[in-house]
Amino acid sequence: MTVLAEHDPLHLDPSGRDHHGEAACLREAGPVTRVILPGGVPAWAVTRHDELRDLVRDPRVSKDWRRWSAVTNNLLPENWSLTGVVKVTNMFSADGEQHRRLRTAVTNALTPQSVRALQPRLDEIVATLVRDLPRNISEDGSVDLCRYFANPLPLNVICELLGVPEYLHSRIRDLTASVFDHTIQGDQVNNTQKEILRTMAELVTYRSDNHGKDLTSSLIVTRRENPELLTEEELYSTLWLVASAGHETTRNLLVNAVRALLKHPGQLAMAREGATGTWEAVVEETLRWDGPVGNILTRVALVDITIADVTIPAGEAIVAPYSAVGRDPLKYGEDAERFDITRKDKKHMAFGGGPHFCVGALLARREAVTALPALMCAYPHMRLAVDDTAPKPLPSMLSNSVMELPVHLMP
Ligand code: HEM
Q: What is the pLDDT of residues 253-276, one digit of tens each?
């Protein structure tokens, strides 16, 4: 039996105006609730930490959007604004053996050893960006940390890992912003998808002619030697997944951490003192309290699934609301809304869980624990140049951060 919630389903906001207000409403609606996605598409959300932790490991859910009844019944709007984050052909939308095949091709490049090997280059990128910040101060005396630090840092790192030539960096940055912008409509959705395909094809052509030690070159070899291991569509889609997921999220982590620290000077002072593990604690608490990923539509019920007395019918889609579970009082207690780097329970779901746990978690954490102390210790008088509520949020249901973060570097 399907038990529908008594209240009207919550419409998830494509413009991301208030991720945490929305997250509180989701928790308030109960452990499992109906939601309406942008474009008027119905789905479900599992809003509590423990229930979501179990769901992402549950073999009764699929990651394959093709199994969603709205897809098989052709009910999704044309040029849907979530197309770029749902209708993909890579590990993100694969189950079982197919998932393992597509994931292994990438995880080989993200082992602890490969991430450690990136450290010298990471240090160099961070040092250059930190040093150059004063050169980018605008006429009003502020500098935008998003544009001149948090964006280029993970973009450069992921492009290094993928062997993306410099002339494609800004195109990848702009296309990523477009895919995560859920307010875009119509032809713009379609054009973004075509441009992504063109750009990934250009990357593959470049690396076929200039073979290197990067992930793109290694995937090209895999496909050449074993075409059934990686189709052309899977190759382009995998490269795009790593390029986009590999920098937008880490950008948000850096921005949200700086914002949280500037709002909580006592905790910033504690981190600056540099006791072992405090920058790691800043990173983990930011991931929990203001994680880079808000609401992500990722799973389809294969059979009727009952959670906390509510049945999600087979064929329906489920949203993982990571912002809501990050502040779940049942998991983190009455002070779940408080940013506290000394919090004992450091476990969170910001990187997902189960077989689809983020492949880039190690790299993202390494980038953040390298970048944050370098930045915050180089500019001990840094402060926000605007009121904390002024920065505009990213126009996204999924990507949780702000578009700009103007700060003053000097007193
Ligand atoms: C998957 C978050 C950084 C690549 C995921 C998922 C989450 C996530 C929540 C699972 C989504 C789901 O529920 O289905 C984050 C956060 C990051 C980050 C918060 C930064 C702070 C990265 C980086 C890379 C990356 C740096 C690439 C190097 C991926 C890939 C998947 C994934 C390929 C799909 C894994 C699979 O389906 O098996 N990430 N991510 N992510 N992430 Fe990340």
A: 999 999 999 999 999 999 999 888
DSSP assignment string, 128-168: HHHHHGGGG--TTS-EEHIIIIITHHHHHHHHHHHT--GGG
CB 356 within 8 A of CB 299: no
Q: Which of 351, 366, 372 to mutate to test the pocket of ligand 1 (most atoms within 8 A of CB)?
A: 351
Residue in the block written with tokens 């942008």:
38
- Return left, alpha or beta for 61; rule: phi > 0 is left, psi -120 to 50 is alpha, else beta: beta
Residue 6 — pLDDT band, cuts 50, 70, 90? low
Q: The domain at 10-408 falls in which architecture?
A: Orthogonal Bundle (1.10)
Residue 61 DSSP symbol: E
Range 305-320 average pLDDT: 98
Q: pLDDT category, 2, cuts 50, 70, 90?
A: very low
Q: Are 97 and 350 in contact (CB under 8 A)?
A: no
* CA atoms of 301 and 305, how far apart (whole Å): 7
| Domain range summary for the chain, segments of one domain joined by + | 10-408
Ligand 1 atom at minimal distance to the Cα of residue 367: 26
Global confidence as pTM: 0.97
For tokens 């290094």, the residue is 160
Report helix, strand or coil for 8.
Answer: coil
Question: Angle at CA 267, nearest 5°, toward 263 and 271?
Answer: 125
Is 194 exposed, middle or buried, given 0-12, 13-18 or 19+ CB atoms closer than 10 A?
exposed
Q: Detail the DSSP E strand segments found in 276-364.
A: 295-301, 305-307, 310-312, 317-321
Query: Is there a contact between 67 and 302 (Cβ–Cβ < 8 Å)?
Result: yes
Sheet holding 383-384, edge to edge: 143-144, 406-408, 383-384
Q: Do residues 179 and 189 touch, judged by C-beta distance below 8 A? A: no
For residue 266, the SS3 value is helix
What ipTM score was computed for the predicted complex, to two decimals? Answer: 0.99
Look at residues 58, 65, 95, 93 and name the one whose alpha carbon lies nearest to residue 80: 65
- Residues in contact with ligand 1 (CB, 6 Å cut-off): 91-92, 103, 106, 110, 158, 241-242, 245-246, 249-250, 253, 291-293, 296, 298, 320, 322, 350-352, 356, 358-360, 363-364
| CA-proximal residue: ligand 1, atom 42 (nearest) | 358
Strands 10-11 and 61-62: unpaired
